[in-house]
Write a structure and sequence with these properties.
Layout: E1 7-12, E2 15-20, E3 25-28, E4 31-34, E5 46-48, E6 54-58, H1 62-68, H2 78-88, E7 95-99, H3 105-111, E8 116-120, H4 124-136, E9 142-145, E10 156-161, H5 167-176, E11 177-187, H6 190-201, E12 206-213, E13 217-220, E14 223-226, E15 232-240
Parallel strand pairs: 7-8, 7-10, 8-9, 10-11
Antiparallel strand pairs: 1-2, 1-6, 3-4, 5-6, 11-15, 12-15, 13-14
Helix pairs in contact: 5-6
Length: 241
Amino acid sequence: MIEPGDRILLVGEGREFFVRAGPGKLSTDKGQLDLESLVGATAGDILETHNGSKFTVRIPRPTDFFTYGKRSGAPMLPKDIGLVIAYTGMNHNDDVLDAGTGSGIAAIYFGGVAKTVKTYEVRPEFSTLAMKNIAEAKLSNVEAVAADFMAAEGNFDIVHLDMQVQPEHIAHAYSLIRSGGYLACYTPFLEQMAIVVDAAAEQFAEVHTHELIEREMTRSKRGTRPSTSVCHSGYVTIARK
């Protein structure tokens, strides 16, 4: 049941609106809708604007926070986050450390899979924004920390780095990872990827790098073909202790 302050996605009439349940009105070209009417509603309920336009209530998922959540920069794409989850085998038994929080999108995805997530961001203003996004995603197992990754302590099954990685970061990550656990590093450029691979190869038992490529298909009356949008986004290096 939806409570006051919850984030909700309203879908209908070819439109989507990311709103907060509670006082106020949503004014659109499809009419006005009283946001107070969302309180007590459930996913799948149909609400009508004052002129009869119908919208379906959705509870936001991580994909919706990627699309509509407030950002402090460019977050990892869902396909890239998915590769990290798949190639590390992230699951409900895992304690995950994430560094380079940004707006918290990767941490939100990880929080829906892992037992615990602790995410470090050295820039306080970015960490504050991430905390708000994580709270709106209603993830009590995700903790945002405004501190340098090098200050991190404890033991984790997976360490994920989305930051300017140097050899000392790889060494510190190794000290935090439990035996059999994984390091995952996202790097947008080949030069950064090389730093990660060279440093990880000196300490980890297995090191593999994957180029991140995705091609969306488009279909029209003329035919079906790959989209012309850019399909390359970067590299993920996976290393196992």
